[in-house]
Amino acid sequence: MQARDDQPDLFDREELPAPDAPDPGGQMGIFEHLTELRAVLIQSVVAALAAAILAWFFSERAVDVLIKPATEPAGSLVFLSPTGAFMLRLKVSLALGLFLAVPIIVWRLWTFVVPGLLQRERLVLVPVILSSIVLFYVGAAFAYLVILPVSIAFLLGFATESLRPSLTGEHYLAFVFRLTLAFGVVFQFPLVIALLSWWEIIGPDFLKKYWRYGVVLVFVLSAMLTPPDVASQVLMAGPVLALYFLSMGISQLIANSRRRKREGEKAEEREASEGGG
């Protein structure tokens, strides 16, 4: 295989200018790194707990919003133990606290990692991290606003006069969290493809050649991550297919950009050699 000497390696420190090189005198030992990592984890947990305490005062309203897609077709939800309602609000508060604390957690992790990164690596990781967070929230919002009402209506449609739904808040919220988490993860697909294309692990030709296998994989993934009903699987497969073809376009743009850059570098080399001759 021909070596790709003309491709800039994001993690090749020897090719980078001296100002970007880490300062050997400022490097920490393994115990200092572990101490710093422990501080980051403790501060992240404290931030999430503080946000959860704040979210507790809004948890009643949050529970009402979360269960609204189920109350319309099924009526009121129930809890089966004296502590059921309290534990439900507590879990919602913890989930909201983690949701609100994500920017702080990401910032603390970033401050832990950034001293060991070069300028070029920082410029790459910043948009990657921000894009990942945005895509996760978009996927979770899509699941709650679009997929969840359809799934609930479809599944509860199997009720009969003698078989009526009586949903518990605990089981329903577990269903909601699983669905939104699945969509948040699946919506990372374009970002993963963009990174793989940037590193030239895969390219647009590969994605175009095996797109049929990609479609099958999308439906298999949708069946695994969604509730066992056709409506949810089709509704998930649709956006994921769109993300697949969007990723194909992103990969093509990256490949075109790299090809133009290499052609420009070759043209400069020819001009330099002709000028020198």
Give the terminus-to-terminus CA distance: 32 Å
Mean pLDDT: 77
Supply Rg. 25 Å
SSE sequence, one letter per element: HHHHHHHHH
Low-confidence stretches: 1-5, 10-26
Number of strands: 0
Structural class: mainly alpha
Main pleated sheet: none
Contiguous helical run count: 9
Task: Give the fraction of residues assigned to helices.
Answer: over 70%
Instruction: Give the strand content.
Output: under 5%
Outline type: flat
Features:
277 residues, mainly alpha
Topology:
Layout: H1 30-56, H2 59-74, H3 84-113, H4 119-156, H5 169-186, H6 189-198, H7 204-209, H8 211-225, H9 230-276
Helix pairs in contact: 1-3, 2-3, 2-4, 4-5, 4-9, 6-9, 8-9
Written account of the structure:
With 277 residues, the chain is mainly alpha-helical. Helices cover 75% and strands 0% of the residues. It has helices spanning 30-56, 59-74, 84-113, 119-156, 169-186, 189-198, 204-209, 211-225, 230-276. Helix 1 runs antiparallel to helix 3 and helix 4 runs antiparallel to helix 9 (230-276). The chain is flat. It starts with 29 loop residues before the first helix and ends with a helix. Residues 1-5 and 10-26 have low confidence and may be disordered.
Summary?
The protein has 277 residues and is mostly helical. Helix content is 75%, strand content 0%.
